[in-house]
Amino acid sequence: VELVESGGGLGQAGDSLRLSCIASGLSIDELSMGWFRQISGKGRERLACLSSSGGIRTYLDSVKNRVTISRDNSKSALYLTMDNVKTEDTAMYYCAAARAQFGVRCDDSKYWGQGLQVTVSS
C-alpha cells in the first residue's frame, strides 16, 4: 500500500487547511485510515481516525472542534479539513492506514505516507 499526501504548505492563522491522501495498492474499503502530526520536538499525535466504512470517527480532543476527517472510497482518498488554523498547528502531517474491516485502528497503522509540512504564520 502506498499513501501519498498533498495539500498543506504555508498558511496564515485563521485560514482553513485541506489535506488529501491517495492510497494505492490495496482497496481502502479494508482500511481504517487517519491523520497524524508531529510538531517539532514533540512526539507524533493522532489527530483523527476513520473506520473503513467511514461510520466511526475519532478526534484528538484539542482539535476536534476545528477538524473534519472524511474519505471517498471510490477515489481511494482520505481528507482532512482544519478550520481556523493556529501557529501551533505547524507540524509534519502524515496519512496512515491499518487493515481493519471494522472499527478505528489507526494506532495499529502499518502504512504511512511520506508526510508533508504545514506551516502557519501569525
Low-confidence stretches: none
Computed Rg: 13 Å
Distance from first to last alpha carbon: 37 Å
Oligomer: single chain
Q: What's the overall geometry?
A: globular
Query: Order of SSEs, N→C?
Result: EEEEEEEEEEE
The chain-level structural class is mainly beta
Count every helix, treating DSSP H or I runs of 4 or more residues as helices: 0
Q: Please give the share of residues in helix.
A: under 10%
Rounded mean pLDDT score: 95
**Total number of strands:** 11
Task: Determine the strand fraction and express it as a percent band.
Answer: over 45%
Sheet of most strands: 7 strands, mixed
Describe this structure in words.
With about 120 residues, the chain is mainly β. The protein has no helices and eleven strands. It has strands at about 1-5, 10, 15-25, 30-40, 45-50, 55-60, 65-70, 75-80, 90-100, 110, 115-120. Strands 2, 4, 5, 6, 9, 10 and 11 form a seven-stranded mixed β-sheet that branches. It has a four-stranded antiparallel β-sheet with strand order 1-3-8-7, with no helix packed on it.
